[in-house]
Amino acid sequence: MKQTPEYDRIQAQMQKGVITLDGFLGDDSRKLVDIIVADTLTVHKRRTTHEAIVERMEHFKNLGLKGLGNFITLDEHFEVKVETVRGLLPSPFGGPGMYGKTNTTVHNKRLGRTITYTDLHIHFIRDHGFYEGIGSPFRLEPDALIEILEVGTEE
Amino acid sequence: MLITLLVSIAVISLISVFLSLLMVIADATIGNYGVVKITINEGIRDLEVLGGQPLLRSLQQEGIFIPSACGGRGSCGLCKVKVVEGGGEYLPTELPFISEEERAQQIRLSCQVKVKNDIAIEIPEELFYVKEFSTTVEKIRNLTHDIKEVTLRLIDPGEITIKAGQYIQFVVPEYEDLDEEVYRAYSVASPPGDATHVELEIRLVPGGICTTYVHEHLKEGDTVTINGPYGDFYLRESDAPIIFIAGGSGMAPIKSILLDMEKNANPRSAQYFFGARSKRDLFLLDEMKALESSIPNFSFVPALSEPLGEDNWEGEVGLITDVVRKNVSDAQASEAYLCGSPGMIDACIKVLTDLGVSEDRIFYDKF
Would the ipTM clear 0.90, i.e. be above it? Predict the structure, then answer.
């Protein structure tokens, strides 16, 4: 798919050392638009949506805040911890406002699997369907998110 | 055929040379804006600068530092100033960072506004006192498994005037994949009385540009550039009892305030609640113990939310909000100073207001 100049500019902002040391693309050499399309296809194949995934991410984050940085048990088989460190990050996609460096860690006891995501990830997925490039240390695999957070599927 | 080809090449070459010359002439004339005036805060300060540079850089060269995290690349959106006159149209690179409300107030990104003609701006007056300092790393020590204390000795200028609780910006130089310097804000942990040093407590953030630099690259003897001071988190003049609450590297500004209270023999009563997960996340316990002796009415209450068996912890256990609620019965006359994550601060504000502290007497430094 052809990428617009606007996405070229955004992809430049995602390189290593621009906003974060590791950037958001890892060693993924694909165009940004192709990364987004591929992950969107994965999500659709799982019969769900970016919105449904983000809804679960925000659900755990909002409830986990009550633990003030400690794990708390939710919905019987989830353990959730929300931690914040100093600093704010802009989005490489632009837009007013900055995102706190807040990490939400969700442990699904039934599956024995854990995933960690940030406020910036929530914005990436909700507003752009972006899960970071393959090889990025903070990439979220859509499959892993759907399974660990037990995201509902459409019938 | 060959002649036509050669003539075509010659014509194209001539046009290229002509256009190049035109660009050189244009750069030397149209791009030369001469000396222009920057009027700050209705003439409280006027600057004469060479036109053509971004406003952020022009101000920096005149010793006025606008907080910025990306070093002027237009990627952090922090260097906002009010441009009253002469700023020209908004650039597409600014718009993503400017809300409708800010646009109505003529707020601009100073790194994107080029000073091409006389310009009038408004900035907070405190920024007149911000300076850039060249420093040397005098000492680095580990406070916990992920927090380092970095002591900087000021070289030029040799002294800083700061209020206890304020912060500075640390200039991270180019390293690894970082190809331009960036700025990161850290609270100062040393007291204002030690004007020749700035002490920082820096927690490692995985993937963090500055914290990775400090934890993995910075060495004693290195040169570091900082600028500051900034911020309105400092102890207010009052006789009210004080409740301090912090967690993690939120210790830094509170420590600075306490050391200042010690130096000035401040008689105000103060309780300091410090939250950590387990014993390995606690630090400066001996220093805080010593302050309990040297500050007349001061007590330090460390609390662990998840003490490990081997910690043999006999102190307070639980979330810091629960520990505050348990130890403070009536706080109507108190002031509170908080430093930590937004979640912790929001939860503490709720507890403190429940205990009677009015919201206008709760001061905080949110991460």
Answer: no
